Amino acid sequence: MRQTRRRFLATAGLAAAGVGSVAGCTGRTGSAASAGDGGDGETSTGESMGGETGTASGGSADGTGSGGDETLAGHPAAQGLDGQPTLGTAEATATIIAFEDPSCPRCRAFERNTVPQLRSELVDTGQARFVARTYPVIYPWGEPAVHALEATFARSPEAFWGLFAHYFAEQDSFSTENVLARTEEWLAANTDLDGASVVADAEAEAYAEEVQADLDAGEAANVGRTTPTVFLFRDGEYVTRAGGSVSFDLISSALGL
Q1: Beta bridge partners of 240
Q2: Which fold has domain 3-255?
Q3: CB 207 within 8 A of CB 154
Q4: How far apart are CA 121 and CA 214, in angstroms?
């Protein structure tokens, strides 16, 4: 299970070269158990790529560019957006696209500290939609986990969100050797899905195209190896991006919501 990872990592360094210093996960090696939250992953400070801000007219203030098209329809981060795991509706004023790795401690902090408020104050009120793009570039177990997530999403979006949350909640307990077995157990206990079938698809990389689509979108948008990275759009126009410790206040302020 290394084909998609090898293809991305071969070019990740080039993508990262155009990105400033950030506070997010940056492709360390080792085990998530030894990393924990990195000592500072529990607080969303709003620290982001160069502390960037943006405007509703679509200017990219971080200097990395966005592939030319500053609209949601043409932005590289939104490649293949239809069919991605999404909370909220396409009619919402704003779109938040988040590139996250289940194995990334900083993503866990984002999911704990920022996403619940995004959901309650922006998504549930109809002001924004939240789109998750799985992006396994940090610890090795993130790759089989992402294949399992894609196999789960193909069967049940609701189960996808449950498994996604489970990976972050129990992040320190996973490794490359046990992640699929633990995934099967969780699916059997918490969903109506056939966990063995999901894991079989993950092992066979049955949804490799879907996994690669997210990696390609991240590469095209110069995400590099920084997770989480969020791209913000309002009224169909690119506003800005932020990576690392991404707070609710940063997102709501940038979107004017």
Answers
A1: 232
A2: Glutaredoxin (3.40.30)
A3: yes
A4: 27
The single-letter code of the amino acid at 33 is: A
- Report which of residues 66 and 118 the model is more confident about: 118
**112 in Cβ contact with 168 (< 8 Å):** yes
Find tokens 């998750």 and name the residue: 132
DSSP bridge partners of 97: 131, 231
For strands 128-134 and 94-100, give the pairing: parallel
The 10s digit of each residue's pLDDT in 222-238 is: 999 899 999 999 999 99
Strand order in the sheet with 229-234: 86-87, 128-134, 94-100, 229-234, 237-243
Q: List, for residues 164-208, the tens digit of each pLDDT value.
A: 999 999 999 999 999 999 999 999 999 999 999 999 999 999 999
Dig out the tokens for 131 from the structure. 């789109």
